[in-house]
Amino acid sequence: GAGVSQSPRYKVTKRGQDVALRCDPISGHVSLYWYRQALGQGPEFLTYFNYEAQQDKSGLPNDRFSAERPEGSISTLTIQRTEQRDSAMYRCASSVSGFSLDEQYFGPGTRLTVT
Amino acid sequence: QKEVEQDPGPLSVPEGAIVSLNCTYSNSAFQYFMWYRQYSRKGPELLMYTYSSGNKEDGRFTAQVDKSSKYISLFIRDSQPSDSATYLCAMSASQGAQKLVFGQGTRLTINP
């Protein structure tokens, strides 16, 4: 079956612009996660959802970052007024259930470059 | 200080060697320990996970957790060129908490 998909795969934007990154989880997966991965580093947790409810957003760096999953499936991570320090790989993952330690399946990521 | 420390390497060994990868951590609340493998330009894939202290073996891979020392290890026996990847340790505080804390990753190359 299809895995986690993300779009766009690459995004170049100018400083100050808003960007929206999309994640399409594996069908039927309850939980969806967003991570940010800098080059040469491990993924850093941003936020996660069970169904449409945002359960933990403690990893969002500041209020320019927000995420939603309105129908409990596709999720969008939005970064407003982008800054160069926002440049990174943004990865989405999904898991079957949010109530046990299920495997998180990662997508290919969106490479964001802010110029 | 980061919650999880992992030597970034790079580590290069000949085919057939035993590889040891390690992470240390500072948060004593961590109970679930995972190893992910990440090939170049791909997302991480779960390799193994263990709960609390002890060993777990899966084929050529063995994961060890020593909670008293806050130290975890992944051993790869009879290493193959296809094992060349970045290996990431990850940890979670409780079964219901889905927030994974990752190490930096160790870049491993197995030379034929």
Structure, explained:
- The complex is a heterodimer of chains A (115) and B (112).
- Chain A has 115 residues and is mostly beta strands.
- Chain A has strands at residues 5-7, 10-13, 19-24, 31-37, 44-50, 53-56, 65-68, 75-79, 88-95, 105-106, 110-114.
- In chain A, the strands form two sheets. In chain A, strands 2, 4, 5, 6, 9, 10 and 11 form a seven-stranded mixed beta sheet that branches. In chain A, strands 1-3-8-7 form a four-stranded antiparallel beta sheet, with no helix packed on it.
- The mean pLDDT of chain A is 94.
- Chain B has 112 residues and is mostly beta strands.
- In chain B, 0% of the residues lie in helices and 54% in strands.
- Chain B has strands at residues 4-6, 11-14, 19-25, 32-38, 45-51, 54-58, 61-66, 71-76, 85-92, 101-102, 106-111.
- The radius of gyration of chain B is 13 Å and the shape is globular.
- Chain B starts with a strand and ends with a strand.
- The chains are: A mainly beta (115), B mainly beta (112).
- The A-B interface holds A 4, 31, 33, 40-45, 48, 55-56, 58-59, 91, 93, 95, 98-101, 103-109 and B 4, 6, 8, 32, 41-46, 49, 88, 90, 92, 95-105.
Tag the structure with descriptive keywords.
heterodimer; A: mainly beta; 7-stranded mixed β-sheet; 4-stranded antiparallel β-sheet; 11 strands; globular; B: 112 residues; 6-stranded mixed β-sheet
Question: How would the blueprint of this fold be written?
Answer:
The complex is a heterodimer of chains A (115) and B (112).
Chain A: E1 5-7, E2 10-13, E3 19-24, E4 31-37, E5 44-50, E6 53-56, E7 65-68, E8 75-79, E9 88-95, E10 105-106, E11 110-114
Parallel strand pairs in A: 2-11
Antiparallel strand pairs in A: 1-3, 3-8, 4-5, 4-9, 5-6, 7-8, 9-10, 9-11
Chain B: E1 4-6, E2 11-14, E3 19-25, E4 32-38, E5 45-51, E6 54-58, E7 61-66, E8 71-76, E9 85-92, E10 101-102, E11 106-111
